[in-house]
Every structure is written in C-alpha cells, then in structure tokens.
Amino acid sequence: MNQTDRILPGIVLMLAFCAIAPLIDVASKLAAQEVAVGTVTLGRYVVQGLLMAPIALLLGHSLRIPMQGRLLALGVGRAAVSIGATFCFVAAVRVMPIADALAIAFVEPFIILLIGRFVMAEEVGARRLGAAVVGFIGALFVIQPSFVEFGAVALFPLGTALFFALYMLITRALARDVHPVPMQFQTALLAVILCLPVLWVGGALGVDQVYLDQPHGIFWVFCAAVGLASTVSHMAMSFALKLAPSSTLAPLHYFEMVTATLFGYLFFDDFPNLATWFGVAIIVASGLYIIHRERLTAKAQRVPVADVVSGSAQAPVRPD
Fold first, then answer.
1. What is the H or E stretch that residue 172 is in?
2. Nearest CA-CA partner of 241 in 171, 312, 153
C-alpha cells in the first residue's frame, strides 16, 4: 500500500473518531445524572482495560507495565492527566450542553503551543502565539454566557483542555517506546489503580462527586458505554495517525463540533446560542491558522537532499 492509499483510510478513521467521540459525552451526561462523576470516570477505565486486554494479547503484545523509571513515570503521568481530563469533562457536561463544553475544550492546541514555547523552550513565532491568544478570546465568548448560567462549572472544560494538552505531550514521549494498543491498556490499568484510593478518600471526606457509587438499572449501560465509546474512538484516532500525517488529520478534528452539536440536539434538545457559535468560529479559525503555520514551518525545515549535495541549500526561512 503506497502513501496515497494509506492516507484515505487514515482520513476515514479520523472521521470515525469525530463521529464516535461525542458519544462518550452523551453517555457521560446520561450516566452523571444519577451516578457520581468520579464513578463514571472510573467506569471508563475499567471498561477500557477489559476491552483492550484481549486485543493486546491477540496482537501479541505484553500486558506488563514497563517498570523502567522513565517509562513508568510517563505511564503514571499519562494515566493521571487522563483522569483529570475525563473527570473535568464529565463534570462539565453533567450540567452544560455538550457542544458548549467541547468548544471551550478545543483551546487544547493553543495550550500545547504555549507549553511548548514557555515551558519546553520550543521556537514559536509571533503569528502562532497571536493565533493562540485569539483562540482564547474565542473561548471567552463561550465561557461568559455559560458562566452566567452554570457558574464555575463552565471552567471545567478549561481543565480538560489543560489536562489533555499534557496527555498529548506525554503520549508523544511514550509513543517512541510503547505501542498504542498496550499503551491504552496500561493507561486504563494505572488509571484504575490511581482512581480507587482517591474515590475512597473522597467518599470518606464527603467530597461532592468524588466517591464510589453503585449504578442501578440502565445507568450500568450508560457507564459501560462511556468506556466502550472511549476505547473505540481513541483506537480509531491512534490508527489514523499511523496511516496519515497529523498535519493532514488535524483540521478534520473540528468535525467533532458538528457531530457533538447534532448529538446534543438529538439527545438533550441543546443547541448553541449565537455567542457560542461566534466563539466556536474564532476558535476553529485560529486553530486552522496555527495548523497552517505548523505546516509551513515543517516544510521550511525540510531541506532537499540534492541542494545539500550541491552545496546550494539555504537556511530555512522562518515562516513565523
């Protein structure tokens, strides 16, 4: 299969992710009406682990968690920030419309950019930094009316964005040494190990939504659906990234806003207001601009071999 043939399946898998991922939010919102947010979060990882274990074994992967210092630290860190991202988003959609919460969480690429610039000392030009600032301004158009209506819970999607940005950065570091399939199982197992004592302590101290709760009736199905949709959608994204370049797939991620809005309307009769749509438009435009600048930067850094051999290569032009 040549590169062109691989890109099309990659695009299809990425679109599948965008279609399935909002079902995580639908199931979470349904489950969290009766089940504690902490328990819904734990349920996601229990189901994910049960689903990924046989898949990993069938593909010939070990289920053993790497115990080397660096890999273990990265694995625990990935599980911890994944828990944070999941808890914050479930807590948000418990009361907020799904599309509003997702729109705020879409500032995650801007957070990755800022972490790269100010924490990891990566070179990020003024144009991309400016686009990140504009993207945050767009998020304010969504947060402000949501904050008025729902209070501080409207800030939870920002927590999701921060935790998921860290999740992506840790995943990049782990991907050099760990295959995506066992990585998903290991993250689920470590997340369960981390969640249980936190929920036990939260229950003992009476912390709101942070305790072990027993679902009843249909809510077992809703909790299981969170884990199922999470596992299927994230595996689709993982294999999409193996088949097609991230620069090709990244713009497609915004299709998730369309499916999230559709599901929010179909299941809960929620539809974003004008201010939310305006904020979404700013966030998407800023995100697409950053993707465009990233492509130009990557292209400028690729020096043709022929130019190197002939001695005619020039220093790459910094497009920022």
1. helix 156-174
2. 171
